[in-house]
């Protein structure tokens, strides 16, 4: 029995080490000045899609790193691309983009046909007040919910009625960023003001998601994904990329509290302002190198800094439920 227990413990240790091994690296030969921000994956064929801020386009990437454009720069009024999600049934790619033009703030929502690259629906919010559509979810209720970082709000798109409208505006979600939801439809929002927040859609009730151990990370998350009753967030608020990380939070059975927290990766040498992530078949795909630090320091321009930038890199992690408090 002792020998069996020793063997079992050894096996579990080996499996745990395997789960902690480095991620798979998908390297590409895209332009250096993409400044990628959003990522999503088509569950039908595994194709990766990445949005570009600087080039205002969407790129498709295969697992071997080969790539091509889904849409060209500025096609159909596409602006600086951020969050994306795929409607697997319709084979539509929903994506948000923004740009300031003169004294106007423009925020757009596009739905592109993945087979033809043509626009199927488009919504525009034009205002002299600041807006920034940042990330979105395709909720089981059939609607899209979009974080507006500058407006402390969530917007709603009803694709059936083809209507864009304000859903909720509240100081509890000031500076919202990533957004995701669980199997029961509960929505989670990453905010820079109150950390992780939970939202009940029918009542529009907002409340903090408590139980995290590292408040610095919880208050500085970018992209969020949900997997097997876990929230996984991309932390990019560190002073240097050595401090940036991928954080996994396990939840209780009600989905209203955190029961465990672990670091999936921290300070990866390929991190250059990681932003968002996507899930496919128990694997986490992380957009590793947005170069937003360099881009923002250059007055939100990639011109003249190509020597500081690089092609798109995606890191792929095997996920594990082994999360301890």
From TrEMBL:
Span of the signal peptide: 1-18
Assigned keywords, A-Z: Signal
InterPro entries: 6-blade_b-propeller_TolB-like (IPR011042), SGL (IPR013658)
Pfam families: SGL
Highest taxon above the source species: Bacteria
Gene3D superfamilies, per database record: TolB, C-terminal domain (2.120.10.30)
Residue ranges occupied by any SMP-30/Gluconolactonase/LRE-like region domain in the UniProt entry: 36-225
Protein known as: SMP-30/Gluconolaconase/LRE-like region-containing protein
Organism: Chitinophaga rupis
Taxonomic placement: Bacteria, Pseudomonadati, Bacteroidota, Chitinophagia, Chitinophagales
């Amino acid at each position: 029995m002792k020998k069996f227990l020793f063997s079992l413990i050894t096996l579990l240790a080996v499996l745990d080490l395997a789960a902690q091994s480095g991620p798979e690296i998908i390297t590409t030969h895209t332009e250096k000045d993409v400044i990628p921000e959003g990522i999503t994956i088509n569950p039908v064929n595994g194709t990766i899609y990445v949005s570009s801020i600087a080039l205002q386009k969407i790129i498709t990437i295969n697992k071997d790193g080969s790539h091509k454009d889904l849409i060209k720069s500025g096609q159909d009024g596409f602006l600086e691309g951020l969050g994306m999600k795929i409607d697997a049934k319709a084979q539509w790619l929903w994506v948000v983009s923004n740009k300031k033009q003169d004294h106007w703030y423009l925020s757009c929502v596009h739905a592109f046909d993945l087979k033809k690259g043509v626009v199927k629906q488009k919504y525009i919010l034009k205002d002299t007040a600041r807006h920034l559509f940042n990330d979105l979810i395709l909720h089981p209720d059939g609607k899209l919910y979009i974080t507006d970082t500058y407006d402390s709000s969530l917007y709603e798109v009803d694709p059936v009625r083809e209507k864009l409208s304000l859903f909720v505006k509240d100081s509890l979600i000031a500076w919202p960023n990533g957004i995701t939801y669980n199997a029961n439809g509960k929505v989670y929002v990453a905010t820079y003001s109150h950390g992780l927040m939970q939202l009940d859609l029918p009542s529009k009730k907002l409340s903090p998601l408590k139980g995290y151990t590292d408040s610095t990370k919880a208050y500085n998350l970018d992209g969020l994904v949900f997997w097997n009753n876990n929230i996984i967030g991309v932390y990019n608020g560190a002073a240097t990329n050595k401090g940036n990380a991928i954080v996994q939070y396990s939840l209780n059975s009600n989905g209203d509290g955190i029961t465990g927290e672990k670091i999936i990766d921290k300070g990866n040498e390929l991190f250059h302002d990681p932003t968002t992530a996507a899930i496919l078949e128990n694997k986490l795909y992380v957009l590793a190198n947005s170069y937003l630090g360099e881009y923002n320091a250059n007055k939100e321009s990639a011109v003249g800094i190509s020597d500081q930038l690089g092609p798109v890199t995606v890191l792929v992690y095997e996920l594990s439920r082994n999360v301890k408090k």
